[in-house]
Amino acid sequence: MATLKLVDVSIRDGNQSLWSMTGINTAQMMQAAPLMERVGFRAIDFTSSTHMAVGVRYNKDDPWERIRLMHRALPKVPLQFISTGFRFISWETADHDFMRLAYRTLMKAGIGRFVLLDPMHDMDAIIEVAKLVKEEGNAENMGALTFTLSPVHDDAFYANCARQMAQSGYFDLLYLKDPSGLLSPERARTLIPAIKAQIGKLPLELHSHCTIGLSQFNYMVGAELGIDALHVAVGPLAHGSSLPCASQTVANLKTHGHSVEVDEAALRKLEQYYHALARAEGLPVGQPQAYDASYLKHQLAGGVLTTTRRQLAELKLEHRFDEVMAEVERVRTELGSPIMVTPFPQIVTTQAMFNVLAEERYSNIPDQVIRYVIGRFGRPTAPVDQNVLDRIMALPRTAEIQQEPTKMTLKDRRKLFPASMPDEEFLLRAVMPADQVDAMNTRAPDQLYYNPELSPVLKLLEEMKKRPAVSHFKVQKQDFSLELRSGVNVPPAAVLSPPTCSG
Questions:
Q1: In 3D, which of 430, 341, 432 has the Cα closest to residue 99?
Q2: Mean pLDDT for the stretch of residues 212-240
Q3: Which of 38, 238, 328, 333 is the S-S candidate for 233 at Cβ 3.0 to 4.6 Å?
Q4: Is 190 exposed, middle or buried (0-12, 13-18, 19+ CB in 10 A)?
Q5: Virtual CA dihedral for 118, 398, 323, 212, nearest 10 degrees?
């Protein structure tokens, strides 16, 4: 029987899947770090350029300081950064020099592992990125084989991609990434051996979302077939459109006779912490998903479905949802069967909505669809339908977009900022709105301590600050008492003395 390792995706992918990527700030991560170190995860799926931008935009957190702090707290566990290659935060393609600086700065801050994927499986592009990363530091490179269902993406397709990555010499390991939860146990039994046959001794990990309820079955099959590590989420950040629950995965593996390299007592404590955080912050708990075969057709993740329903409801057209889903399947085929990972679900769904709501299909074509067709996001895996291609290429707007610069260059962006600006700040300002970076820089430093049990009290105090007319209030609950009066100084000892705090 196999001995497996676990990769924890709670902070990045679990947070993104269930809590809109905004649910965990730096202080909350830091509170979990000692337990994460004790559990013994193989790696932590920690951040991405989009995740970094969200931290700046919504929490005013410095993403570079966040990486440094967590690397210090987890020195033995690689922090993972997922990248689509020659892009950083913006979907604008960047030149080699810009990306060299980005990868070098990420490694300097503490990133120890890069997931490198190309949504089109352009092997030349992904190998080029892997080579660049290796030239700039000694982080691990993990190549992504992103799973989808289409006539093009058969076992031989993925085996060929795996062979090219393995033979390049720039990858330390690979993983099978199933972002929409479409992989079935039957397909796993043919696909995993086909990949392993091409990669020699390189480790292979498995990452399968719970979207249609098949991922735990896939994980048991993967363990049987020699997968080295499984990607899991902890407590409330598991299930739903996220990944399998860590503790349940451990229990299932042990029942099947496998062993797992984790400290189960520490894992239980980490699970308790995240549950307390979810209760304190009013965040949803992921729920196991029932099998839903409709996902096999439209291949959209739960978040995109929710957004589409909301948009149709705002237009009072929710009764046309099924039409839009059928059109999504048709548009995806016409656009060459792109894998439904960001930004392609948004591109395909927007075109499908326009097609359903207009009198004629493709009478309204968004700029992003044009950019996709002319190759600004990479080479489509399969040819675009000729009729659709002809229509798009004949548009005057297409000619305008073709005149846009194809790449953001380090040289040009450097001219916009003082030469003395630190690399970390430059990389943010080069691709983000200035006011968001300004707000991050002017924010007072966070207290790097978070106690979910105190969160309701702190929220109450924040609200009371907004009501100067209230000069006195008291809260009494079981063994807790809090009384505050305006203009009264409270000795520090009184504030810190549990369980009663009064002033």
A1: 430
A2: 97
A3: 238
A4: exposed
A5: 10
The alpha helices in 137-235, defined as continuous H runs, are 155-168, 185-199, 215-224
pLDDT for residue 98:
96
Task: Please name the residue that has the structure tokens 């093009």.
Answer: 152
**Which segments of 49-150 are extended strands (E)?**
79-83, 111-116, 140-146
Q: According to the model, what pLDDT value does residue 438 have? A: 95
Q: What is the pLDDT of residues 261-296, one digit of tens each?
A: 999 999 999 999 999 999 999 999 999 988 888 888
Residue 331, C-beta contacts closer than 8 angstroms, at least 6 positions apart: 348, 351, 352, 355
Q: What is the pLDDT of residues 89-118, one digit of tens each?
A: 987 889 999 999 999 999 999 999 999 998
CATH code: domain 3-281 is 3.20.20.70
Burial of 6 (0-12, 13-18, 19+ CB in 10 A): buried
As a whole number, the mean pLDDT across the chain is 90
Position 476 confidence tier, pLDDT thresholds 50, 70, 90: confident
Looking at the DSSP bridge assignments, the partners of residue 140 are 113
| Cα–Cα distance, 104 to 135 (Å, whole number) | 9
- Is cis: bond before 343, omega within 30 of 0? yes
CA distance 21 to 58: 10
Phi, psi (degrees; rounded to nearest 5) at 209: -75, 160
pLDDT at 447: 66
Under DSSP, is residue 248 helix (H, G, I), strand (E, B) or coil? helix
Lookup result for tokens 């809260």? 475
Q: What tokens does 230 get?
A: 């499984």
Note the Cα 113 to chain centre separation in Å. 15
Residue entry with tokens 């085996």: 159
**DSSP conformation class of 14:** I
Contact present, 228 and 258 (Cβ < 8 Å): no
- Tell me the pTM: 0.86
Q: With beta carbons less than 8 A apart as the criterion, state whether 340 and 180 touch.
A: yes
Please report which confidence band the pLDDT of residue 492 belongs to, taking 50, 70 and 90 as the band edges.
very low
Distance of CA 434 to the CA centre of its chain: 24
pLDDT bin (cut points 50, 70, 90) of residue 392 is very high
The class that CATH gives domain 295-402 is mainly alpha
DSSP category for residue 319: G
Q: Domain map of the chain by residue range?
A: 3-281, 295-402, 456-502
